[in-house]
Design brief:
Cobalt-precorrin-4 Transmethylase, domain 1; binds iron/sulfur cluster; alpha/beta; 4-stranded parallel sheet; 3 domains; Rossmann fold
Length: about 300
């Protein structure tokens, strides 16, 4: 058997930055530090940080007064920011700068009296955080699919759309086309909201499945971008599985398979990829090939207060 490794895969610049923020705040303040929501959607990363003294909470009310609070890479609403301030918390914001870009875009458009259509998954924390940037008197509607576009009613002439950063590029394109058809004057964001890491990982899977007859995506169930990677192979009728680690690989998946494609979502560390490769070597893999579709060189600076610490 042969492994075909997708490249780019795994950690993006936003995830690296978020984890580094947690690590540095631990170093400065000592345990416990509180992270609102999983800092990134990956079980291995979360468990590793828990073992170092991080406490993950869903509500700021779970944080003691004056505690250290870190906001996850997905971003938080203005209300959550305020709650943390009100309890005198020491706040570090690990929101990915590319999510912050979407927040700023929406606030800017609402100031110009635009109604906003936000394309994304209603239950995802990024969408909750983005919705929470807006004023209650302004219109913002979430659409997830074509049915939502069909049912969408807006009486404002000025409409603009934004998207979640981790969506399927292809599916979103179809939704945007439908929106443009229904609202011909709708304005696009200045720069694409689906982030570079999501786009690059999806392109890399497209290349990998040209050769692979099984696709393994390393990532957790609640990771949006990892799920989208699995779906790409699925839509091409290539068996594809989302796995947290090598323990979840079933021998039956490997039957009659010659080429195993492997990728990892933006929140999954490379160590998990290495474990999967080693496991598969034990199952008869004797060749590894990597398909590099893009060179990535993105790095986001840490918040000023954590630099040089
Ligand atoms: S997937 Fe994209 S938006 Fe999300 S943390 Fe990574 S770079 Fe930022």
């Amino acid at each position: 058997m042969e492994i075909i490794l997708a490249n780019p895969r795994g950690f993006c610049a936003g995830v690296e930055r978020a984890i580094e923020i947690v690590e540095r705040s631990l170093k400065i303040h000592g345990a416990p530090v509180y992270v609102r929501h999983e800092v990134v959607h990956n079980k291995f990363v979360v468990n590793n940080l828990k073992s170092k003294g991080v406490i993950f909470v869903e509500e700021i009310q779970q944080v003691p007064k004056g505690g250290v609070v870190i906001f996850s890479a997905h971003g938080v609403s203005k209300a959550v920011h305020k709650q943390a301030k009100d309890i005198g918390a020491i706040i570090y914001d690990a929101t990915c700068p590319l999510v912050t870009k979407v927040h700023k875009e929406i606030v800017r458009k609402q100031k110009q009296d635009y109604s906003i259509v936000l394309i994304g998954h209603k239950e995802h924390p990024e969408i909750e955080g983005t919705m929470g940037q807006t004023s209650p008197d302004k219109v913002i509607k979430i659409v997830e699919n074509l049915e939502d576009v069909k049912n969408l009613e807006l009486d404002n002439e000025n409409i603009s759309y934004s998207t979640q950063t981790t969506l399927s590029v292809k599916d979103t394109k179809v939704i945007i086309e439908a929106l443009k058809k229904k609202f011909p004057k709708i304005q696009s964001p200045k720069k694409e909201d689906i982030c570079y890491a999501t786009q690059n990982r999806q392109n890399a899977v497209e290349e990998t499945i040209k050769e692979a007859d099984l696709m393994l995506v390393i990532g957790s169930n609640n990771s949006s971008n990892s799920n989208r990677l699995r779906e790409i192979a699925d839509k091409k009728n290539i068996p594809a599985y989302l796995i947290d680690d090598f323990n979840q690989i079933k021998s039956s998946w490997l039957k009659n398979v010659n080429k195993i494609g492997i990728t990892a979502g933006a929140s999954a560390p490379e160590t998990l990829v290495k474990d999967v490769i080693n496991y598969l070597k034990g199952k008869g893999v004797n060749k590894i090939k990597e398909i590099k579709s893009t060179e990535e060189n993105v790095h986001f600076p840490l918040p000023k207060e954590l630099q040089n610490k």
